[in-house]
């Protein structure tokens, strides 16, 4: 989770840090009623398990003086050439420099396993763990997972270390008291308290966002520090804040312990994360999509594309299926399916409940390992050019048969067939839904279409059935597909 990433859609800055104290007045406002009398007993048990993580990295210096552009034959040409050659030699000697950074972490085994954030140790040449008693030990990177911003380190202590255990983050409730120990601004071990403000937060930092939100302050240098419950169990790993300035405004986020534990276990065992994969591309089910699919209220994850020879394909999933349950867990939205599939053990067989044509069906599926890279496209024979005819005007769009000329013009892959959108009228529902020239309508009402005539016929059938909107499956030239609904009137 890189700091200040431009891909964050939040209007304010996401600064990477961890939990620190809020004033008593702030705590009272956030959680009316009396707080804990003291956390001293709990703190005394866990304080020595929290460490300061320091790193060192060699980077290239960007210093340099631009060479002035002189006309050929200038009397100053030789002088400046000699001067800047000497200056360049000096810069080469000082080209590299050492930079350091600070973060937090915590010991989970007496023999020296330490959890922290990936962004704390990313690109570091050297990593050290600094303990409360002044001990400084060099740490080895066991493994890391950028998608959840977690990393596992190992030190070799002379004697067993104080370690802490993970708790059950699923039982946390909004308003529960939590405690953090970290290293804000490099000040050293600091303990703070606050309450849980919200759960299951998505801050668009990655595909598996499921953060605990706390009203306690989080500041720089506390990244990777633990969030404790009042029993001294780690229920979160502090990771990010929302802030316009980089300092805390009382909105901080922690990776839940129940998300972190399987990741840490895999890093310890494999030195990498092996996530589950079923081979589908999914999209949210909106209210209008739910109506078109006949599933009642909006819920689940809508299957758009199924990867060839994937677990989903072998299990019989189809484009247009709505996955509502996976391995006994309800899928209320797309993020639920993304997380539960990723957390499922590779080669495990699970039941998948889908809604197809308005009815529930249960399919059996064997989860595979998520591929490291996208599979290469397979070559397929090119279709013959469609008969050249005038575009059909349907639903505020011009639709043309697929042709070799249109494939070249819009860079449409050979395996994609359907009716090509060549124009979208401004201000129409199609325009509002983001449809544009170069996309291809491949299904109407969950039936395959190969031409504008097919689209026209299928729209007519939907009108006869009394449908108010049409469900279209639309592909771009690269094969990325999505469902959209357009009104039929």
Question: Care to describe what's here?
Answer:
The protein is an alpha+beta fold. The chain has 4 domains: 13-51 and 166-270, Trypsin-like serine proteases (Thrombin, subunit H, Beta Barrel); 52-62 and 79-154, Thrombin, subunit H (Beta Barrel); 276-369, Pdz3 Domain (Roll); 392-487, PDZ domain (Pdz3 Domain). 19% of the residues lie in helices and 35% in strands. Strands 7-6-3-4-5-9-8 form a 7-stranded antiparallel beta sheet. The longest helix is centred in the first third of the chain and has 17 residues, at 77-93. Its EC number is 3.4.21.107. The active site is at 119 (charge relay system), 149 (charge relay system), 223 (charge relay system). Residues 369-382 have a biased composition (Basic and acidic residues). It is an enzyme of class 3 (hydrolase). It catalyses: Acts on substrates that are at least partially unfolded. The cleavage site P1 residue is normally between a pair of hydrophobic residues, such as Val-|-Val.
Chain-wise SSE layout:
Layout: E1 13-16, E2 18-20, H1 24-30, H2 40-46, E3 50-60, H3 77-93, E4 96-107, E5 113-116, H4 118-121, E6 126-130, E7 136-138, E8 140-145, E9 150-154, E10 177-182, E11 190-201, E12 211-214, E13 217-219, E14 226-228, E15 234-243, E16 252-256, H5 257-270, E17 276-277, E18 280-284, H6 287-293, E19 301-306, H7 311-315, E20 322-326, E21 329-330, H8 334-343, E22 349-356, E23 359-366, E24 368-369, E25 392-394, E26 397-401, H9 404-410, E27 419-424, H10 429-432, E28 440-444, E29 447-448, H11 452-464, E30 469-475, E31 481-487
Antiparallel strand pairs: 1-15, 2-13, 3-4, 3-6, 4-5, 5-9, 6-7, 8-9, 10-11, 10-14, 11-12, 12-16, 14-15, 15-16, 17-24, 18-19, 19-20, 20-21, 20-22, 22-23, 25-26, 26-27, 27-28, 28-29, 28-30, 30-31
């Amino acid at each position: 989770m890189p700091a200040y990433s431009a891909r964050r859609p939040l209007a304010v800055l996401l600064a990477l840090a961890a939990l620190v104290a809020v004033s008593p007045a702030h705590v009272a406002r956030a959680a009316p009623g009396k707080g804990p009398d003291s956390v001293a007993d709990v703190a005394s048990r866990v304080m020595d398990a929290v460490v300061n993580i320091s790193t060192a990295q060699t980077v290239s210096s960007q210093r340099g003086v631009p060479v002035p552009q002189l006309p050929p034959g200038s009397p100053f040409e030789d002088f400046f050439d000699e001067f800047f050659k000497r200056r360049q030699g000096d810069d080469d000697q000082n080209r590299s420099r050492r930079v350091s950074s600070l973060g937090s972490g915590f010991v989970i085994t007496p023999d020296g396993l330490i959890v922290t954030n990936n962004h704390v140790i990313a690109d570091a040449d050297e990593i050290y763990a600094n303990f409360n008693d002044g001990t400084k030990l060099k740490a080895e990177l066991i493994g890391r997972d950028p998608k959840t911003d977690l990393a596992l380190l190992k030190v070799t202590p002379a004697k067993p270390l104080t370690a802490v255990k993970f708790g059950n983050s699923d039982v946390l409730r909004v308003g529960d008291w939590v405690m953090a120990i970290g290293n804000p601004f490099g000040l050293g071990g600091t303990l703070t308290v606050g309450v849980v403000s919200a759960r299951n937060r998505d801050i668009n930092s990655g595909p598996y966002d499921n953060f605990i939100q706390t009203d306690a302050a989080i500041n720089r240098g506390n990244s990777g520090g633990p969030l404790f419950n009042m029993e001294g169990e780690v229920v979160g790993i502090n990771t990010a804040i929302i802030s316009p300035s980089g300092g805390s405004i009382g909105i901080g986020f922690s990776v839940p312990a129940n998300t972190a534990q399987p990741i840490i276990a895999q890093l310890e065992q494999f030195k990498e994360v092996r996530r589950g994969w079923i081979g589908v591309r999914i999209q949210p089910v909106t209210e209008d999509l739910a109506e078109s699919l006949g599933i009642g209220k909006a819920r689940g994850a809508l299957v758009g594309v199924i990867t060839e020879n994937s677990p989903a394909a072998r299990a019989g999933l189809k484009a247009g299926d709505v996955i509502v349950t996976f391995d006994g867990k309800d899928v209320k939205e797309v993020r639920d399916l993304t997380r539960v599939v990723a957390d499922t053990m590779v080669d495990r067989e699970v039941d998948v409940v889908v809604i197809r044509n308005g009815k529930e069906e249960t399919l059996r599926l064997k989860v595979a390992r998520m591929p490291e890279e996208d599979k290469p496209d397979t070559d397929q024979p090119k279709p013959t050019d469609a008969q050249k005819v005038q575009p059909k005007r349907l639903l505020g769009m011009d639709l043309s048969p697929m042709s070799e000329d249109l494939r070249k013009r819009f860079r449409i892959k050979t395996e994609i067939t359907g009716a090509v959108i060549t124009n979208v009228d401004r201000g129409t529902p199609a325009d509002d839904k983001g449809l544009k020239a170069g996309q291809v309508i491949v299904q109407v009402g969950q039936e395959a279409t190969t031409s504008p005539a097919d689209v026209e016929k299928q729209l007519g059938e939907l009108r006869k059935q009394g449908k108010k909107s049409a469900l279209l499956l639309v592909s771009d030239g690269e094969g990325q597909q999505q469902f959209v609904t357009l009104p039929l009137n």
